[in-house]
Structure formats: C-alpha cells, structure tokens
Amino acid sequence: MLWVAALGLLGALYLLFSMLENDAETVSSVDSNGAAMVVLEQDRNGHYEAEGQINGQAVTFLVDTGATDVALPESIARALGLEFGPRVKVMTAAGPASAWMTRLDEVTVGGIRRRNVRATITDGEFNGILLGMSFLKHYSLQQQDGRLVIREPLTSE
C-alpha cells in the first residue's frame, strides 16, 4: 500500500511540474488599429520563445534583442537548406566566432512576416535560433508583466 501511495505522490508531482513548465506559445492577433501583433509569455528563466518559420519551415526562435542578426547554428542552417555566404568574424556571448552571412527569404512569427532578412550562420553549436534585431528592428517591442508584445508599425516602410 505504501508503494501505491508513493507512486501516486510521484504522479502528482509530475503533473504539477508539467503544469509549471511554460512551453513556447505564440499568440497572434490584430490590434484595434489593424496592425498584426504577437504576444509571447516569459518562461521561468526569463526568456521569450516564439514558434515561427524560416522560408516556410517550422522553427522555434529565442527572442534576443542583443543579437544583431537572426542567428542559427550550422546544423540547422544545413537542414533548412540555406545558402552560405561570405565568411565573417562575429562577437557572440561566448566571445569571437567564425560565421557565414546569409539572407532568409522569409521569416514569420505568428502573424508577422518579413522578407529578405539578414542572418548569421555560426560555426558553433548552440540550442535554437536567435531572433535578433535584423528582424525585430522593424517592429514595436513592448515588455510588461512577463509578456512581450511584438507589433507591426502603424505606417509601413
């Protein structure tokens, strides 16, 4: 009987921690002015993840306003069939690194889409794809109460 109670307790703990885990959820909508917007919930580590697409292929982005470009590791770039442009040196959070420049035909996050986005393909492996300022600079960003709102500007460029 004690084993049954222990298994029940483990099951309850599993459910509790599963509910506390915040998966990447991208909520798209249109504001009162008709501008597309995406609302992201902060995860328990303080990060914002967003479901999206690169050139029509599903990916998960980590929003990084400190990243100059959309950045992705070589293995993901190859899996997405990206073209590798000129070699460059870049400064990453881990220090200087080699990379390739490239252009993404289209980047989509929720209902927001941008064409011809500059990106960097890094030599090193890291988890995920950074959604950097080469995409984000075209939108209004507002962070409050654990939410990040990415909104299209009222006037188009």
Please explain how this structure is put together.
It is a single chain. The protein is α+β, with helices and mostly antiparallel strands. It has one domain (23-151): Cathepsin D, subunit A, domain 1 (Beta Barrel), CATH 2.40.70. It contains 3 helices and 11 strands, in the order αβββββαββββαββ. The strands form 2 sheets. Strands 3, 4, 5, 6, 7, 8 and 9 form a 7-stranded mixed sheet that branches. A 4-stranded antiparallel sheet has the order 1-2-11-10, with no helix packed on it. β1 (26-30) and β2 (36-41) form a beta hairpin. It is globular. The N and C termini lie far apart (68 Å).
**Average predicted confidence as pLDDT:** 83
Q: Strand count, sense and closure of the main sheet? A: 7 strands, mixed
CATH class: Mainly Beta
What percent of residues adopt helix (DSSP H or I)? 10-25%
* Number of individual domains: 1
N- to C-terminal distance: 68 Å
The CATH architecture is Beta Barrel
The secondary-structure class comes to: alpha+beta
- Cα shape: globular
Here the CATH topology equals Cathepsin D, subunit A, domain 1
Summary, kept brief:
The chain is an alpha+beta fold and 157 residues long. It has 3 helices and 11 strands, in the order H-E-E-E-E-E-H-E-E-E-E-H-E-E. The protein has a single domain, classed as Cathepsin D, subunit A, domain 1, CATH 2.40.70.10.
Which helices and strands appear, and what pairs or packs with what?
Blueprint: H1 2-20, E1 26-30, E2 36-41, E3 49-54, E4 57-63, E5 70-73, H2 74-79, E6 87-92, E7 95-109, E8 112-122, E9 129-131, H3 133-136, E10 140-144, E11 147-151
Parallel strand pairs: 4-9, 5-8
Antiparallel strand pairs: 1-2, 2-11, 3-4, 3-7, 6-7, 7-8, 10-11
